[in-house]
Amino acid sequence: MSTISSLGVGSGIDVRGLVDQLVAAEREPWEKRLTSRQQDIETQISGLGRLKEGLSQFGSVVADLKYSWSFRGIESKVSDEGVLSADAQSNAPVGNYEVRVDQLAQSQRLTTNEDLFGADFSPGTTSLGAGDVTLTYADGSTETFTLTEEADTLQDLRAMINAESDKARAEVVDDGSGYRMVLTTTGTGEENAISGIGVSNADPAALLNELAFDAASMDGNGTSGGFTQLRASQDAVLFVDGLQITRSTNQVADAIDGVRLELTDVGTTRVSVSEKYGVAKEAIQGFVEAYNSLRATINELGAYDPETGESGLLNGDATLRGVQTDLARTLGEAVEGMDGGIRALADLGITTRRDGTLELDEQKLNEALATDPEAVEELFTRADTGVGARMDSVVKQYTGWDSILNIRNQSLQDRLEGIDEEWEDLNRRMDRYESRMIAQFSAMDAQVASLNKTSEFLDNQLAALNSGK
Question: What angle do CA 88, 94, 95 make, to 5 degrees?
Fold first, then answer.
């Protein structure tokens, strides 16, 4: 607002205060209307946000109810857990299996021979000579490492293998008699074994040439060229109910349908796969609890107390009524395509109270699960028409990317931005009104000051005439 410190000097009137009161009186009705509209929109946005949050939480529950695994729990037990562990998936068939582990998968381990480098050898300073070292694996793949004149020590070769190899790790070890290089394959199984080590160097006297190895020509001690095999690569060998199975690792995923085995020792054990009791009931109870939590939110948002006059954030809101109607309709409808005694939630003992929440008759649910568990599962999981699919569809209708709630929220946000512009327009109009009032009162003040001067002059003249008589 404009400020003029000399307002009222000529008239003696508090013009500044008068202008402020006039501007405030002019602004008040407009400000009340804008504030009321703004608060109403913000209340709707807040209420819709809570509604969306409640629907989304409920949706995370019903989304799983479309799938059979939500109603089936499979567990596995192993009689001797020292031999292996078992993890049964939801699709594993019930059964008992005898498993005998004859051999564990293991990686290969090679070491350079004890007297290969000599007594004065230093792994960090002694030159091996520039050239290539190529590791060839049993599966036919190769890895080549190139030493240069600037980096040609055993430590350089170790660092290069560890930095570049996908299949081997290298160590430099002092065994008390001298330094050795130890190579260990990172993968287990015969196909990951190092079958040969080839070296190339222009200098036939270079130490690098001593690092050759050929698994096919090992002697009785496992020695070939400059390396001795400490441990051979081998596959895991197991028998499941008499059927021999060979794998390159100790993690066996398909020896028993739907069961992952982790082999830890040789021996014989039994693996039992059974259905976990109570999973379907827990899933249905979870559905009822999730729905009741959503319904409590809906009831709170739409509430009205006639005694206090207080109402929920979305009292009378059409979108809230739409959610209530769609949920109630979906709860009450029978599932299309199902025959027999289980076709709707009421057949499981799930009914609706007066406040819209669900009540579960556990005895009736237990009877349904005992009589026809497949039908109970199908009631929720049947494609397109099952309770899970239909409830999930209702939730997405209101919470998805182009859903009713998102479109409504965007519309309200746009209206808020429009009100912000109206506030700016109001401020500009009030500034102009204030300027106009200041101009008018300034003119009045100047006129009064002029009249006061004229009056003072006339008073002086009359006083002079009277004094001259």
Answer: 100
Residue 423 domain-assigned (yes or no): no
pLDDT in tens, 406-420: 999 999 999 988 888
Nearest to 196, CA basis, from 224, 232, 155: 224
Give the distance between the most distant pair of CA atoms in the chain.
Answer: 156
Question: So what's the pLDDT on residue 300?
Answer: 95
Number of domains in the chain: 3
Q: What are 231-241's pLDDT values in tens digits?
A: 999 999 999 99
Burial environment of residue 397 by CB neighbours within 10 A (0 to 12, 13 to 18, 19 or more):
middle
- How many Cβ atoms are within 10 Å of 242's Cβ, its own excluded? 7
Contact 55, 226 (CB under 8 A): no
Which of the residue ranges 15-29, 95-109, 258-272, 437-451 would you say has the lowest mean pLDDT?
A: 437-451
Query: Does 452 fall in a domain?
Result: no
Q: 219, 250, 298, 260: which is closest to 53 by C-alpha?
A: 298
- Burial of 396: CB neighbours in 10 Å, binned 0-12, 13-18, 19+: middle
Find the domain containing 339 and state its range.
53-69+279-400
The span from the CA of 387 to the CA of 366, in Å, is: 19
Please report the pLDDT score of residue 276 as a whole number: 85
- pTM across the whole model: 0.62
* 41 located within any domain: no
Q: Kindly state the tokens that stand for 132.
A: 């290539």
48 within a domain of the structure (yes/no)? no
Cα 426 from chain centre? 45
Q: In terms of domains, do 283 and 386 share one? A: yes
In terms of domains, do 135 and 212 share one?
yes
